[in-house]
Model the fold of this input.
Amino acid sequence: MRQRYIFWFWFPLFASWWLMTAEGPLISAAINRLPNEVIMLAAMGIITSLSITIESPIINLLATSTALVRDHESYVLVRRFTLHWCLALTVIAVLVAYTPLFNLIVYRLLDVPEEIAQWVRPGMKIMVFWSAAIGWRRFLQGIMIRHKQTRKVAYGTAIRLVASGGTVLLLALWGKLPGVVLGSFSLMAGVTAEAVYATLAARPLIRDKLAPHTAPTALPPRSPLTYRSLYSFHLPLAATSVLILLMQPMVTSSLSRLDQPTMTLAAWPIVFQIMLMARAAAMALPEVIIALHEDSLTFEPLRRFSLTLVIATTLLMAAFVLSPLAGWYLFRVQDMAPQVGDLAQSSLIWFLFFPALAVITSWMRGLLIQSSHTRYVNVGMMINIAITAISLLVGVIQQWPGLLTAALALNLASIGEVAYLLWRTQHTLPIGYTLFGTRHSQPVNS
Done:
């Protein structure tokens, strides 16, 4: 397997992730140009954080669909599984937006200041179908990736960005909506457009490859898929996603208890968006490993590609943080208030190696999911969340600076997770393979 082939398989998925992460900065740039921008930006960050946390159980449907949808029977089963999740998460979103559960979460658990919290509920009401749209399109995107149609995934994300960007532009020009309402409508427009496109784009593939009596794709054999085995496969991944996205409310809650909470809560969404964009290369990697690592001959090329990505992401992050690009992006593109922008810019250096750690994590997760060791992925994330929680707690007790506390917690947590995943993954590899180094005996097919 050539590096060029892996690159062109990975690149559309990377482009998809990068375009997806560009959606947040586009919306925040519009909010920054509207009245009351600091409060609106802080509220929008909490709306996004809560909505993503609700959707977290179905984020890894992309990996589950890529790994398990191989024929008509598995397609029907995973589709039913997806619809059940979409319905359940929509009910949860409605409860959060329209019942006293909102006050419990936002006011009591997150301790969000009143001036920000009052703007969170309107956005949550608009975002109630966010999880359903995300779950459905990730199920279909997994099918596309399994059948080597990664370009369609990137096209769908481009359509999403056009829809959300067009909506935010039109509503901003109209100028009669608060920033959080404008942002929430734009996000919903984007995910809805992408879900519709994914449905249309996957239809020929489902008809030709996954119809009844269609010969299954030639892949290494697996045990027959049942609803119970599907649940057992996905549950650790769902728990992992929940834990990943619980970190954002945890960080938000901690920042609200530290010095200058309004300024810090306004700066943090921009810093978090930059981190998402910097990790786009890593986020695209697990499905590449799952789809392409079929036997012992694929391990070495995929390892080489992953390690090259570690170096590339570190160099690119350094080029952004240590050059005038960071200031240009924060103050010209995002048009941030000087105090908030200075706070965000000064914190970026603490995340210099964060994208590289994300690449290693994604490489390990891909190998573990491909070999059906999804429980190890979950344990790794539990270690991550435990270190994050302890670090944030210490930061709040000691009253460290807000963004420094967040950076320290997330970096230490990533290092802990990487160490565990490296250890576990090495023990699941075929005899004679090492994650770092050369083969020292004849490989065995995985």
